[in-house]
Amino acid sequence: MLITTDHALIEQVLRMAAAVAVEIDVHVDLEDVRPGWASAPLIMVGADLAGALADDRPARRSGVVLVGATPIDEGGATGAIWRDAVALGAEHVVQLPDGGGWLIQRLGESVDGPSRGGFITAVTSASGGSGVSTLAGSLAFAAQSLSGRVLLIDGDANGGGLDLLVGAEEASGIRWPDLAEAAGRLSATTLDYALPHPGGVALLSHGRAGAMTVPVEAFDSVLAAGVRGYEQVFIDVPRSTWAMAPEMLDRADRVILLVPGRVRGIAAAAAALPWLRSVTKELSVVVRATSRGVAAREVERVLGLAALRVVPEQLQLATREDRGEPLLTNDAYARAVRSVLADAVRERVPAA
Asked: Are residues 209 and 136 in the same domain?
């Protein structure tokens, strides 16, 4: 709700609201304000009507902002504006255009709520067929059992769709092609409502109707909404996207490099490590054990790393995936996945 007779202010606020897809009810008559005073998510009061509204003594409530479109001088007007702000219980006094960025963010929060500050984990491998999608999905489901607000993003346009991996190919909801034109601020609430939620995890998957390259603008919009709306965001990043979509790695707070216990996979990881370290904020290496493969301690020696987490081979996992059954059960694989996830939680929380 915007309460003002200042046409310049109305024009500026409506333009900012349109940028974040927020509808504004404009009121120029104080008599029209009362019905929506208690229910509006955000109330912006123009400096021109703030005094008159304060004299009306409306019920105190949160989410009231006093807004002005003209410079606030250093004389008596300044004191009057702050007195009005105190009388209305305003949480903030903002002057446009200087405070436009703050007001745009506040308008978005009026719909989505405060940002959850989602932690972004990208899972990748230097070689194909390493089980990256399985690990990314498993981490997402493990995180969901802890935080309850998790987004899993499919970064592999040629992988057949993560929805198939988790048995959600028939679940209603949008896929990447539906968001190809997204740009700017995307509502986290709207995104969550539109996505399928297999096992409680919000899933943005590619489909099977032809591979598509996700525009950087669309990826940025989705990722920004993911950070605002979820505690944890996981991205399945195939090796094939490193060159054409490096933003999947460099936007992540943590990148997990999955190394299969095979000679070629280890060699590929060793060659990729210097570059990955240069483009990631934080890099963790996880070894996927394979039958008759190279021992984890030998992988550590070749890569020059110590005490790497190991995800054991689970022969029944592929069968569960084909059947659309849950990825995680109470077995050694699930316990290893939770240990990898716990590392990220410990690294995120500073020691007391």
From this structure: yes
- Indicate the average pLDDT of the chain: 86
Separation CA 143–CA 129 (nearest Å): 24
Judged against a pLDDT cut of 90, whether residue 3 lies above it is answered with yes
With a CB cutoff of 8 Å and minimum separation 6, the contacts of 31 are none
- Those residues whose C-beta lies under 8 Å from the C-beta of residue 148, and which sit 6 or more positions away, are 200, 231
The share of the chain scoring above pLDDT 90, in percent, equals 45
φ/ψ of 41, rounded to 5, equals -60, -30
Measured torsion, CA atoms of residues 72, 77, 79, 81, in degrees rounded to the nearest 10: -70
Domain boundary among 81, 112, 143: 112
Pair (39, 140) in one structural domain = no
- Total residue count of the chain as it appears in this document: 352
Within this chain, do residues 80 and 148 fall inside the same structural domain, yes or no? no
What's the CA gap between 259 and 130, in Å, rounded? 7
